[in-house]
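Hi Y.,

Following your request, here is the sequence exactly as I used it, all 190 residues.
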Amino acid sequence: MKLETKHKEIIWCIILSLGLIIFFATGCKPKEILHVRTVTTIDSTAVLKLSSEVSKLTKENATLKTDLERFREENIRLRSEVSKHEINYNIDAPLKPDGYYPIASEVKTISKTEYDRTIKEYEKVVEELKKEIEHQELVSTNLEQTVQKVAEENKDLKNKTTPKTGFNFKLLLLGMVAGIILIVFVKFRL
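Below is the corresponding structure, written out as tokens. Let me know if you'd prefer a different format.
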């Protein structure tokens, strides 16, 4: 009889040990859980740098717009100015030693070619400034969008939590203690 009791204890210990090993090997979680670890870094210097570039481009854009308006006003002023210079000679007076009559009044008309050339130069400058403004606005818009994207990414990264995964040593230790208590209980009960 003693032999049978010893065999029962050994069999129960083996069954209990195998059960605990299987329990801890498989665990309580489904096998489809993926172990993903993410390391996130937030680079707020990029946001600050892009914000400063946006403000710089905004100031430059405003300067270019004021220059454009100033050139437009000057262009209008040049178009409206007509310079005329007439010379009236006093034919009642005797001739001068150089062979000309003395000048009674002088009015000269200056050709508009000089003004036209200046206007064309200003128009070229205005067109270049328009192109530059469009380019700066595009760059500014792109930088603002980049800043918004980086800010949204930073918010998303701050809000993301990294789930804890891996082996739970507390559960293993608890199971081992429970197994030892169960073995001792079975040994003294039988």
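The two ends are 12 Å apart (CA to CA).

Thanks again,
Q.
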